[in-house]
């Protein structure tokens, strides 16, 4: 009988909660106190559940801009107050951090999704900021094309200008590729599609001047589109943005002529160069030039030749490399002269037809070398001339000249690889080092010579690359690499670890020994443990609680932008970190960011387990609750099933008040999730 009464009570409770939630969502006036008085036997549960549901609905129905402002503040770290637009309902933050803040919104008049771009209030007093915003509006309005983000409306609210744009729900290219190399044919097809939009912009008298992965967006059906014409040059308008001395664009993707600050010299071939730089990054996972500072990058763009993509990824088709390098030619006249020409060669490549661009010849390599080293080039010319005077046979002269050119070409190849090794991003260094064995001695000689010549001006990252490349022949670099390991970034750590561990069986034991050395800081010991995780995840140290607690504590302290990278390195041992991370998540004495990081790591680990995710939801504070919800799209239905089952569970009536309160709060959290 008692069991039957309990089932009836549970059924009544579920019905009351459902009806109350529906009333709140419909906006009907509801009085939770009156409802509780009508059901005194359920009062203890309803007192907790109903106010929570009401508060949650109120937050959703109230000024959404307030919650959006919080999200913006967290992401771009500034105080922002977005104006309310009566005809639009804000949905979510899309992006922010530069001069613009973009939110996804619903246009109530036309019942369509749009993107609204506001000028960041930090730049409201900036003439340049307002000019760029106006330039984007005018430029976008001049061209209509499926491969260009469309502008629907321009307006101003409370003194804050805004643009209503086509919403691209597929994200941007930078996020989509995550900095990794892509399939060559997919890359060629993508750039070919963008060429048609770029050609339309050029025909409308526009030069984009800031084509880069972050400005290439995708629609919901994954169609690529060019965005952000804020730096566009309008050929028939003298814009204030294009005065002499101004360098506009993003260094790694800008054409050499853009680095001179002479906008009158910039033509549509500058956009062709930028598309080539995007294609290069898609093929090899990095832009053609990327220094450690902006000045260094600009210097590389202007004076260095890009390393051939096939040197970094030999499987790249030769014709596609040829197309890419033609786009990146230093001389604008030697590039494709229009986006249409580039598209034609890309289509020929995709159709397995001959392309119009031709590969750079040995002679052209020598000419490029001569521009960089005129004195050495002069000697190369004088040498065959002197031979001609003393030798009658023209054929002998020709043969010797060919030998000299071939030898010089080989030297150029070696010098190019050595330069690439010295200036490479650490993540691409292993691929370059795999090309060394065939010419090991010559390349090492070149590297040692470069190291000697650069003394006093060598950067830390260049010295790191040199130390790794020369470690096999000069073990004095080992101690320097140990010191760098203790301060390594997540990009550097696996490369340094691999170099030190290669051929050294004592590496792990030395790491373990240093890990126990209290003279090292917690941050340094964290890096040692992470290094062990990458090469010896089955080490017995992962059963030691003090090690896993140390790693977990340090992991939640890292900068937000680095958390994902460190997590990837620790994936082989993540199971050992679950308990310490749970403790951090529940410790209210710790900073909120640390607890949120722990929640994020745990929810990502539990992403495919609806029961674990639901348990995390039940125990989370509001910030953690929202964070976990972001993990749900792939298995929302499964978690809903678990939550529904939980809400209908019978609770022992004999339980004490504390247990009942806990259960009521968990039910409230479950109801909030279902809502």
Polypeptide structure, described:
α13 (362-372) packs across α14 (374-390) and α13 (362-372) crosses α15. Mean pLDDT is 76; it is low at 59-79, 235-247, 366-383 and 385-395. The two termini are 33 Å apart. It is built from 30 helices and 9 strands. It has helices at 2-26, 32-38, 43-61, 64-76, 127-142, 173-177, 184-203, 268-284, 294-303, 309-312, 318-327, 339-350, 362-372, 374-390, 394-423, 429-433, 440-453, 460-469, 477-486, 492-501, 507-515, 522-535, 545-555, 560-570, 578-586, 592-605, 610-619, 622-629, 636-647, 657-674; strands spanning 88-96, 100-107, 112-119, 151-157, 160-166, 206-207, 216-218, 224-226, 233-234. It is of the alpha+beta class and 675 residues long. The strands form 3 sheets. It has a 5-stranded antiparallel sheet with strand order 1-2-3-5-4, with helices on both faces. It has a two-stranded antiparallel sheet with strand order 6-9. A two-stranded antiparallel ribbon has the order 7-8.
Q: Indicate the mean pLDDT.
A: 76
Largest sheet: 5 strands, antiparallel
Distance between the termini: 33 Å
The total strand number stands at: 9
Coarse structural class: alpha+beta
Query: What integer value in Å does the Rg equal?
Result: 31 Å
Helix content: 55-70%
How much beta, percentage-wise?
5-15%
* Strand numbers in spatial order across the main sheet: 1-2-3-5-4
Q: Extract low-pLDDT stretches.
A: 59-79, 235-247, 366-383, 385-395
Q: What's the shape?
A: flat
How many helices? The count is 30
């Amino acid at each position: 009988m008692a069991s039957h009464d309990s089932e009836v009570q549970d059924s009544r409770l579920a019905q009351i909660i459902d009806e109350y939630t529906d009333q709140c969502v419909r906006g009907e006036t509801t009085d939770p106190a009156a409802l509780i008085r009508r059901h005194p036997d359920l009062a203890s549960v309803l007192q907790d559940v109903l106010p929570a549901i009401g508060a949650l609905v109120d937050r959703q129905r109230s000024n959404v801009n307030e919650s959006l402002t919080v999200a913006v503040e967290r992401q771009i770290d500034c105080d922002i107050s977005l104006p309310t637009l009566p005809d639009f309902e804000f949905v979510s933050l899309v992006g922010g951090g530069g001069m613009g803040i973009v939110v996804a919104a619903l246009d109530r008049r036309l019942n369509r999704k749009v993107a609204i771009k506001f000028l960041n209030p930090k730049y409201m007093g900036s003439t340049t900021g307002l000019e760029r915003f106006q330039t984007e509006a005018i430029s976008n309005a001049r061209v209509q094309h499926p491969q260009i983000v469309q502008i629907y409306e321009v307006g101003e609210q409370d003194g804050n200008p805004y643009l209503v744009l086509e919403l691209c729900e597929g994200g941007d290219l930078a996020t989509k590729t995550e900095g990794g190399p892509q399939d060559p044919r997919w890359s060629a097809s993508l750039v070919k599609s963008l060429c048609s939009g770029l050609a339309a912009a050029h025909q409308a008298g526009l030069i984009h001047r800031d084509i880069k992965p972050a400005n290439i967006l995708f629609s919901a059906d994954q169609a690529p589109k060019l965005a952000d014409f804020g730096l566009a040059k309008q050929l028939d308008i003298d814009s204030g943005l294009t005065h002499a001395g101004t360098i506009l664009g993003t260094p790694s993707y800008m054409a050499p002529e853009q680095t001179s600050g002479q906008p009158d010299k910039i033509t549509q071939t500058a956009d062709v160069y930028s598309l080539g730089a995007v294609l290069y990054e898609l093929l090899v996972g990095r832009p053609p030039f990327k220094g450690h500072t902006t000045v260094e990058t600009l210097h590389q763009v202007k004076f260095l030749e890009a390393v051939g993509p096939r040197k970094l990824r030999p499987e790249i088709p030769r014709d596609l490399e040829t197309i890419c390098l033609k786009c990146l030619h230093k001389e604008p006249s030697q590039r494709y002269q229009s986006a249409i020409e580039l598209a034609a060669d890309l289509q020929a490549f995709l159709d397995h037809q001959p392309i119009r661009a031709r590969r750079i010849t040995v002679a052209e390599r020598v000419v490029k070398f001569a521009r960089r080293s005129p004195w050495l080039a002069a000697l190369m010319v004088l040498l065959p001339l002197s031979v001609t005077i003393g030798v009658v046979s023209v054929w002998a002269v020709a043969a010797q000249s060919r030998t000299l050119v071939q030898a010089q070409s080989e030297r150029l190849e070696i010098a190019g690889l050595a330069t690439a090794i010295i200036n490479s991003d650490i993540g691409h260094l292993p691929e370059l080092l795999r090309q060394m064995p065939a010419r090991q001695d010559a390349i090492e000689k070149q590297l040692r010579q470069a190291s000697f010549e650069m003394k006093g001006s060598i950067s830390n990252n260049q010295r790191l690359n040199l130390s790794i490349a020369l470690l096999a022949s000069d073990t004095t670099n080992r101690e320097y690499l140990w010191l760098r390991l203790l301060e390594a970034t997540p990009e550097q750590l696996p490369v340094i670890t691999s170099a030190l561990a290669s051929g050294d069986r004592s590496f792990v034991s030395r790491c373990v020994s240093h890990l126990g050395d209290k003279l090292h800081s917690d941050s340094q010991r964290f890096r040692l443990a992470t290094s062990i995780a990458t090469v010896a995840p089955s080490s017995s140290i992962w059963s030691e609680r003090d090690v896993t607690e140390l790693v977990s504590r340090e992991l939640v302290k890292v900068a937000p932008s680095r958390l994902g990278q460190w997590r990837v390195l620790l994936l082989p041992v993540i199971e050992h970190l679950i308990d310490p991370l749970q403790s951090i998540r529940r410790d209210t004495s710790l900073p909120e960011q640390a607890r949120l990081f722990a929640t994020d790591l745990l929810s990502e680990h539990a992403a495919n387990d609806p029961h674990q995710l639901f348990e995390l939801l039940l125990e989370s504070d509001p910030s953690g609750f929202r964070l976990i919800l972001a993990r749900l799209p792939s298995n929302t239905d499964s978690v809903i099933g678990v939550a529904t089952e939980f809400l209908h569970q019978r609770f022992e009536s004999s339980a004490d008040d504390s247990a009942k309160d806990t259960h009521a709060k968990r039910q409230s959290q479950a109801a909030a999730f279902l809502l």
